[in-house]
From TrEMBL:
Secretion signal span: none
GO cellular component assignments: cytosol
Organism: Arthrobacter oryzae
Keyword Ribosomal protein: no
Gene name in the database record: glmS
Matching HAMAP family: GlmS (MF_00164)
Species classification: Bacteria, Bacillati, Actinomycetota, Actinomycetes, Micrococcales
Compartments in which it is found: Cytoplasm
Record protein name field: Glutamine--fructose-6-phosphate aminotransferase [isomerizing]
Length: 630
């Protein structure tokens, strides 16, 4: 939540010097806007003063404001795009917040939990607050320390020292970036539990919530650890802990292409990302098995003996990633015979869960920064569990704090609603399940090879669905007036149904629910009335244990009560036509792998319906891409 950018360039015309901070920061905010779009703001230091502009609403509002009231040229600046926590999305509550008589500007991502007591203390000292935010409290605290405790003496360590002292007083999760008019060529940042990455340039340096904040300028990035402060100038990056002791970050190369974070000719990131899915699955599979079908998950550096001793798996995730976890449960239990639970991260650690050194925690997170999941992983580690992260974001916090990581290679996912990351997460979870089965001898090598071969065919099958998307798009457009849509599925179709409903809620703001089809008769069937649209994910009729007949019975139950049924079924399933107003066929595939296909029409449906309503599918209301608060 919230996107943060910082920049310092050179004043003497060397190397890349001379980038105007305004341009760099705005470009970073444009790329980071998916993290929050309740307001945007920017501050620069020029001519010994801080100048700032901020505006509620999307970044375009700030840009209009800047056109009406330009900022001076500067080589030092910070910028923020907000997902509101404390205080509504108003101009007043937008960041930056100023203190020290307007000489200090601060932006923030996270929540200062002890803001109330700090605010009281500062009010008693005479500070008058303009906003309802916890951020303004942090700004005032930093200003008070700099001015009153340090005498405003930049020589005494200046803003960096003041930031150390402020961080010692702050509780909660935060990334803070500050600039001060007394130190025009410095940006100071601090990080506790919220994301922050340094970008190393030549004659200029950058800060960003993630690398997209500076990807147009450099591919050299530095990961920061917990409770660290970083001071950047055009030539130097200095890292300390909150007590001033020198600390180190870890440099890495960013290997994604900025073009992959552009729309590539599609009207929205979401549509592009839906179309990226064949590649997302392919890239996630690539290089992870040899020609004999042996899984070679080299990056999964957990002692194989430990993995053999695992007697329980708990998958921790939120939202779409949790639905990927539910799919994983079916596959892992079937292939490995290890009891597998899936739990929403925010529920997990508050219920005294049974976790020990034989428990394997598998966290799933696109961003790698979801605070609920991070906290749950930390808790599980404290209990002695081994932790594996399935993650799409290189260098992010959850994989860094886990014992091992299996990266998904979906490429940057910019649209707030997750699509390609979901398919990549499921793919990675299958690989993990097969790896465990291989290690523990639950499956013969030939069986694993066959499943991998089936997985290898998935990208082309997803492409086939995309090539025939017009029919489902048309249905989506025609249902723009729907008030409620239900989704039914059984077995692996159940999490797919829930994901289909989530996509519709997120994008089209329509009431949507996903149910286990067998559960309907236990209550939810009361919702069905004449004309109620119901999507049904129908399993393949092939195979001895097929649930096809059971799901067809469930379709009949809702049709008997007036529902309009829309069915996702396997090619060749002619029988189902009799029970459906619309049928969308997906290519034949083994049941356990079917979510990689059945999800896709539901994504396209939600996209088409929301677009028909004129909604912004990339930035749905009230949401943010990375949820970095609990
Ligand atoms: O980055 P994560 O995968 O940890 O994010 C988890 C959820 O916040 C995320 O999946 C959310 O539900 C998306 N809006 C789904 O489209």
């Amino acid at each position: 939540m919230c996107g943060i950018v910082g920049y310092v360039g050179h004043s003497d015309g060397r190397v890349n010097a001379g980038h105007n901070a305004l341009g760099v920061v705005l470009e970073g905010l444009r790329r980071l806007e998916y993290r929050g779009y309740d307001s945007a703001g920017i501050a620069v230091v020029a001519d010994g003063t801080i100048s700032s502009r901020k505006k509620s609403g999307k970044l375009s509002n700030l840009i209009a404001e800047l056109e009406a009231s330009p900022l001076p040229e500067s080589l030092t600046g910070i910028g923020h795009t907000r997902w509101a926590t404390h205080g509504g999305p108003t101009d007043q509550n937008a960041h930056p917040h100023l203190s020290d008589e307007g000489k200090l500007a601060l932006i923030h991502n996270g929540i200062i939990e002890n803001f109330a007591e700090l605010k009281l203390e500062l009010v008693r000292k005479g500070v008058v607050f303009q906003s309802e935010t916890d951020t303004e409290v942090a700004a005032a605290l930093l200003g008070d320390i700099y001015r009153n405790q340090m005498g405003g003496d930049a020589a005494k360590g200046g803003l960096t020292r003041a930031m150390e002292l402020a961080c010692q007083r702050l509780e909660g999760a935060f990334t803070l970036l500050a600039i001060h008019a007394d130190q025009p060529d410095v940006v100071v940042a601090a990080r506790r539990n919220s994301p922050l990455v340094v970008g190393l340039g030549e004659g200029e340096n950058f800060l960003g919530s993630d690398v997209s904040g500076f990807i147009d300028y450099t591919r050299r990035a530095v990961e920061l650890g917990q409770d660290q402060i970083v001071t950047i100038t055009a030539d130097a990056v200095e890292i300390t802990d909150f007590y001033g002791a020198p600390a180190e970050g870890k440099e890495y190369h960013v290997n994604w292409d900025p073009a992959s974070a552009e729309k590539g000719g599609f009207p929205s990131f979401m549509e592009k990302e839906i179309h990226d899915q064949p590649d997302a699955v392919l890239q996630t599979l690539l290089g992870r098995s040899d020609i004999h079908g042996n899984l070679t998950l080299d990056e999964l550096r957990v002692d194989p003996e430990l993995l053999k001793s695992v007697d329980k798996i708990i998958v921790l995730a939120c939202g779409t990633s949790a639905y990927a976890g539910q799919v994983a449960k079916y596959a892992i239990e079937h292939w490995c015979r290890i009891p597998t639970e899936v739990e929403l991260s925010h529920e997990f650690r508050y219920r005294d869960p049974i976790v020990d050194e034989n428990t394997l925690i598998v966290s799933i997170s696109q961003s790698g920064e979801t605070m609920d999941t991070l906290m749950a992983v930390r808790y599980a580690k404290e209990q002695g569990a081994k932790t594996v992260s399935i993650c799409n974001t290189n260098g992010s916090t959850i994989p860094r704090e886990s014992d091992a990581v299996l990266y998904t290679h979906a490429g940057p996912e910019i649209a707030v609603a997750s699509t390609k990351a979901f398919l990549a997460q499921i793919t990675a979870a299958y690989l993990l399940g097969l790896y465990l089965a291989q290690l523990r001898g639950n499956k013969f090598q030939g069986e694993i090879k066959d499943i991998l071969a089936d997985l290898g065919k998935i990208p082309a099958k997803v492409q086939h669905i995309l090539d025939n998307e017009d029919q489902i798009k048309e249905l989506g457009r025609s249902m723009a007036d729907a008030k409620s849509v239900l989704f039914l599925g059984r077995h692996v179709g159940f999490p797919v149904a829930m994901e289909g409903a989530l996509k519709l809620k997120e994008l089209a703001y329509i009431h949507a629910e996903g149910f286990a089809a067998g559960e309907l008769k236990h209550g939810p069937i009361a919702l069905i009335e004449e004309g109620q649209p119901v999507f049904v994910v129908v399993p393949s009729p092939r195979g001895r244990n097929s649930l096809h007949a059971k799901v067809v019975s469930n379709i009949q139950e809702v049709r008997a009560r007036g529902a309009r049924t829309i069915v996702i079924a396997e090619e060749g399933d002619e029988a189902v036509k009799a029970y459906a107003e619309h049928v969308f066929y997906i290519p034949e595939t083994p049941t356990l792998l079917a979510p990689l296909l059945t999800t896709v029409p539901l994504q396209i449906f939600a996209l088409a319906l929301a677009s028909a309503k004129g909604y912004d599918v990339d930035q749905p209301r009230n949401l943010a891409k990375s949820v970095t608060v609990e």
